[in-house]
Amino acid sequence: xxxxxxxxxxxxxxxxxxxxxxxxxxxxxxxxxxxxxxxxxxxxxxxxxxxxxxxxxxxxxxxxxxxxxxxxxxxxxxxxxxxxxxxxxxxxxxxxxxxxxxxxxxxxxxxxxxxxxxxxxxxxxxxxxxxxxxxxxxxxxxxxxxxxxxxxxxxxxxxxxxxxxxxxxxxxxxxxxxxxxxxxxxxxxxxxxxxxxxxxxxxxxxxxxxxxxxxxxxxxxxxxxxxxxxxxxxxxxxxxxxxxxxxxxxxxxxxxxxxxxxxxxxxxxxxxxxxxxxxxxxxxxxxxxxxxxxxxxxxxxxxxxxxxxxxxxxxxxxxxxxxxxxxxxxxxxxxxxxxxxxxxxxxxxxxxxxxxxxxxxxxxxxxxxxxxxxxxxxxxxxxxxxxxxxxxxxxxxxxxxxxxxxxxxxxxxxxxxxxxxxxxxxxxxxxxxxxxxxxxxxxxxxxxxxxxxxxxxxxxxxxxxxxxxxxxxxxxxxxxxxxxxxxxxxxxxxxxxxxxxxxxxxxxxxxxxxx
Length: 515
Fold this sequence. Notes:
By secondary structure, this protein is α+β, with helices and mostly antiparallel strands. The chain has 16 helices and 18 strands.
């Protein structure tokens, strides 16, 4: 493909100096850089209407198959219940609290810049309609393991910022990194000369030859697409997977066990009669005919069809749920009718319960949340289970990763409106975070119990301060204060003394001396 074809990407692109990237490209290597975005590395075939050689194998087909498999798994009742529990825990809609808040306490900049950033964040939330659809947005991201949005701007007036965000189905779009190589003069190895990134959108993904990727579609610039993954990769470290990936096998096993249980109960539950019919010395053909006549005579001839509301004649069909007819030759006992008992262990579902618990563990949800017979109790902190603490940490990790959906759009909005530069964001990105409304009562119980234990220890050590322990030791080792926390505590105490909220220790000492 000609070089000028890549300048015709759909969507906007930031103008960058590119000095840093140019320095990177001068470093020689035959190994492509790895990232956790799941983009496939390809080499162009040289024709605009040709195909790409897929270095990583049939990456596109596998991704589409995986996403469809995840969506199928999400419809399973137990999985859907677990997903709803996870989403409800991560995205909390409280009337008294805002679901998502931008925290800028850690960044150092002017207050008016912070106010502008906060206003633009509110605008970004309105673009996503996060107040109403944050729950659905998180659920899509969690199930698919990735989420795409097309960012629309007025290219004639980029300073106006982002005008609209449109959701893109993960099946219809993929990220591609095209590698261009050149021969090294010394080793004759293929040295990576340039890597170009873009997205390919196909409304109806077509089929390509094995080992290739079809390039028929619209190519989007990387700045025009907001792309956030789960952060999980498969064992090859090349494909993005969902948090439901480890549930594929348990779900299939559970479905198979449930189906086999239903089949067993249908086939073994009824009691069936066994007719031993005496056929005497009749030849084989005559004996079979005689048996059929007896079967027709004693079988139910008419069956009610619930689908059509009519009576259907089923006398020519033999079901495994009906009676058995066995011929008996002369010399044996005469005609006999006996009963075949139904299954004795139809109520045993231990295997089903085993695979259900295995599925729950794969979903990272505490078992007591999913078992109907478990009672929800609001007890003391020492009653908080270890599973609940692990679940709380799991939710925090999900929230942190999902925050990139909003933060990446916020970054582009701030740069488009010239509020900050790309360098400013690189400096602040580790300190900018999103705070979520919390509804985990177990986490609150845990924090309260920890604080209670620390205060009890502090009370026991108070009599020994000055003799065996210093105040600094207690602050750092008992109350677990950091140096910044100690400084903030001193400032707050001084402020409250000046405001009169706390008594001045110096004045109290003077009064004691006068007494």
